[in-house]
Prior knowledge:
Elements: E1 3-8, E2 16-19, E3 31-36, E4 39-51, E5 64-67, H1 70-96, E6 102-108, E7 114-120, H2 128-138, E8 141-146, H3 149-156, H4 167-170, H5 180-185, H6 192-195, H7 210-219, E9 226-229, E10 232-240, E11 245-250, E12 255-259, E13 264-265, H8 279-303, H9 313-322, H10 328-338, H11 354-373
Parallel strand pairs: 7-8
Antiparallel strand pairs: 1-2, 1-4, 3-4, 3-5, 6-7, 9-10, 9-13, 10-11, 11-12
Helix pairs in contact: 1-2, 8-10
Amino acid sequence: MPIVVGVQFKSVTKVYHFDSNQLLDLAHQDFIVVDTARGPEVAQVVQPPHQIGDEEVVGEMKSVLRRANPWDMVQRDMWQHKEQEALAICRAKSREHRLDIKMVRCEYSFDGGRLLVYFASEDRVDFRSLVRELARVFHTRIEMRQIGVRDEAKLLDGVGKCGRQLCCTSWLREFTPVSIRMAKNQQLPLNPDEISGVCGRLLCCLSYEDDVYREQNKKMPKLGAEVVTPHGIGRVRHIHPLKETVTVMLENHALVEVAVGELISTKTSAGHSCSTCGGCTTKRRAGAEEDNARAREANKRRGNQPGNQPGNQSGQQGQAQGNVVPTEDEIEDDLGEVGIDSDAAPGTGPADSPRRKRRRRNRNRNERGGDRTGGKGNPAGSD
């Protein structure tokens, strides 16, 4: 297994791993010179030499060249002092070329052979003429790199809404995706001014406690759910995930705060009666009795229709079945076959059902068609 060392080139940036090159005595915060794609660079050790698995190595791994000597540190500081002067020149040249870009930072490479210019812009910019002029001014290779608003805030630094230094500048090494769902989980106001940072994007701190809020919200009842509390039946008006309590409005419009463990939701009882009180069972029993009474009334109206007289077969069946108390499901199925709604107003019957009306219209249409054609199977005008 390879022995690697973790380094970073700037403070509070991503950690890169390099082959230790048998330098096992490297300590934390030591300065070393490493080989990169842009040439040698000075880096600082943040993870002393340690072993990693072969599956963790992706691609070709660069190695550590040597420890940084005093001359390496002097050379690095010399080029860093020239970066502010280079930034001022780049800003002046961009104004001369009338480019709508914002120069953020300039960085020289370790040997001064390359100047990296970070800029921010909302649109694509053609800066080829600017690069040629900067190359004539600095006599080095110019590399322009466009960055987003988050990276711009990280490079410029600042103070957040909490009054502390920006997280991305002080300790946050990499940006994580942040969504508006995180603000909803934490019941924060969806006002852009309240949940946006200095960069204009959603606050990075919204993701710090999102996992905790999601786990706590799974234990909480839904807003508006009907629950049974020691104080009576009410509806949930507000939830407090961290306190594991909810605010409930009772039937007398009083607001009480109750722990989640003391709640019994009527929505999740699924037909089971409550063990603490009979509120849920009583309401379900009353509703069932009301449905049965409505079904019996509909059955009585069906038996009083003109087509259901005792002389008719259907009427005899209705009288024969009138002494038997049917179940609610049988009543609903029977009424559905003849087109009667159990909730229909008195006076409606099978004669007014849509199904019978359609049958009567189809029968009349067939009779009229038969008269025009001379009867079925006998064309008009034939003997």
